[in-house]
Specification:
The structure is a single chain. This protein has two domains: 113 residues, Arc Repressor Mutant, subunit A (Orthogonal Bundle); 308 residues, tm_1862 like domain (pyruvate-formate lyase- activating enzyme). β18 and β19 form a beta hairpin. The radius of gyration is 21 Å and the shape is globular. The protein is 39% helix and 21% strand. The longest helix is centred in the first third of the chain and has 19 residues. 44% of the residues are buried. The chain is of the alpha/beta class and 457 residues long. The chain is built from 15 helices and 19 strands.
Length: 457
């Protein structure tokens, strides 16, 4: 049985998207995109959905004091904390430009601080940022505020300040507890630091504490993964992201040059790491949510999966859906459902555009009718592991060709094809990205000449 599973890994371990959007970023039609088209798509979405479900906000805080060599995010390495105030003022300026665009006061349903290292910023500056948003908006029912915390520098003052302005969820980047692995990825953080940060959050009143764990890291063994899960069991975070390291050293600024490809586990070992981790997490009481996420029954992510409300966007899996998501800060991506836009990545360029009262978008994509249909199918597969085309609205011309592409996966028992729907099997869930790729018409029409995505396994 293990040999059969390894053969599936070898067969389906190809480069592919993680599908936080469709179309995926490399297939955005930048040539026909314009800032005006993006504004129109956002206004349309906001008018349709703000009063019913509110909007989501993602705020990118890019500064870090040191470089972690596993990270593919947009960041600026500095120890100069004088950068904090100008950046927060700029983000609030950008928010103001969006407020001028919208016809009504936004209802904030979700707000997430990502990075970079959000806890690079002082508690007072973080409060200034959030209060600047809240003073110009309303709170939607059952809103959820969350942030990414670094276990080494998240203080009681950080946690309390953000709790005071409505945050109830925090996620900590753990990655792996083994010192050899930590040195390779330049992220030294003893278990005691994660324990302290986790317990502080609970003591203050946070209702959901998450940990991010990565398998497939340089020098990482099965024993390392098992020990990390044992340590996690001791702290029992409410939810977990347990995902494959995305090796994308070709992306400018990724920093993934601190080790060689030969230092990385083989695809077979990575899959064993995943299967072992998943088994140990299930023994503790975690339930798998979509792809790479796990939660206890008491967490909102599990409840949203049970209720059929699980959603996926550029922030990953979320417990509730909003049609419109505005991204603030350098490199942030916004989603109006009808269109995507991404901010410029350079901090100086970001400041200069805002100085001229220009929303600092530099690329994007406006979805056509076909894009919207495919987007629904991929979202259904990523969130519910099934999709249907019983409605003529969900049918598209190339669907018969897509089903032909899926026949081999069906013979491998990764999914079941029925008259008007497909359903991913338990065996197929680790390969859901491959299944989505069959629906990805833009990828099918133009296979990339160079590697754009991380490996699916």
């Amino acid at each position: 049985m293990l040999g059969m599973h390894n053969s599936l890994v070898n067969k389906y371990n190809i480069a592919g998207p993680r599908y936080t959007s469709y179309p995926t970023v490399p297939y955005w039609d930048d040539a026909s995109f314009s800032l005006e088209a993006w504004k129109s798509s956002l206004k349309k979405s906001f008018d349709e959905s703000n009063s019913k479900e509110g909007i989501s906000l993602y705020i990118h805080l890019p500064f870090c004091e040191s470089l972690c060599t596993f990270c593919g995010c947009n960041k600026r390495i500095t120890k100069q904390h004088s950068v904090e105030s100008p950046y927060i003022n700029a983000v609030l300026k950008e928010w103001g430009l969006y407020l001028n665009l919208l016809n009504d006061k936004p209802f904030i349903k979700e707000l997430h601080l990502g990075g970079g290292t959000p806890t690079f910023f002082s508690p007072d500056n973080l409060k200034k940022l959030i209060n600047g948003i809240l003073n110009t908006s309303e709170l939607a029912d059952n809103y959820e505020f969350s942030f990414e915390g670094h276990p080494n520098n998240t203080t009681r003052e950080h946690l309390q300040a953000l709790y005071d302005v409505g945050f109830r969820r925090v996620s900590y980047g753990v990655q792996d507890y083994n010192e050899t692995v930590q040195k390779a990825i330049h992220r030294i953080q003893p278990f005691e630091n994660v324990k302290r940060a986790t317990e502080l959050a609970r003591e203050i009143g946070y209702t959901s504490v998450g940990h991010d764990i990565i398998f497939g890291l340089p020098f990482q063994t099965l024993e390392h993964v098992e020990q990390t899960i044992l340590n996690t069991k001791e702290l029992l975070p409410d939810r977990l992201a347990f995902y494959s390291y995305a090796h994308v050293p070709w992306i400018k600024g990724s920093g993934q040059r601190g080790f060689s490809d030969a230092d990385l586990p083989s695809p077979e070992l990575k899959r064993k790491q995943y299967e072992l981790g998943k088994k140990r997490l299930a023994e503790v009481g975690y339930h798998e949510i979509g792809m790479d996420h796990f939660a206890l029954q008491t967490d909102s992510l599990y409840k949203s999966m049970q209720n059929g409300n699980l959603h996926r966007n550029f922030m990953g899996y979320t417990a509730s859906k909003t049609q419109a998501m505005i991204g603030l800060g350098v490199s942030s991506i916004s989603d109006s459902w009808y269109g995507f836009s991404q901010n410029v990545k350079g901090i100086e360029e970001y400041y200069n555009l805002l100085k001229d009262n220009i929303i600092p978008v530099y690329r994007g994509h406006i979805l056509n009718e076909e894009d919207l249909i495919i987007r629904k199918h991929i979202l259904n597969l990523m969130c519910q592991f099934k999709t249907t085309w019983s409605s003529t609205l969900n049918y598209f011309e190339e669907l018969p060709e897509v089903l032909v592409k899926l026949e081999e996966m069906e013979s491998d028992k990764l999914l079941i094809i029925e008259a008007n729907k497909i359903e991913v099997t338990k065996k197929g869930q680790p390969f859901v990205r491959n299944i989505c790729m069959a629906f990805d018409l833009l990828l099918q029409r133009k296979q990339p000449d160079t590697q754009l995505f991380s490996m699916t396994v």
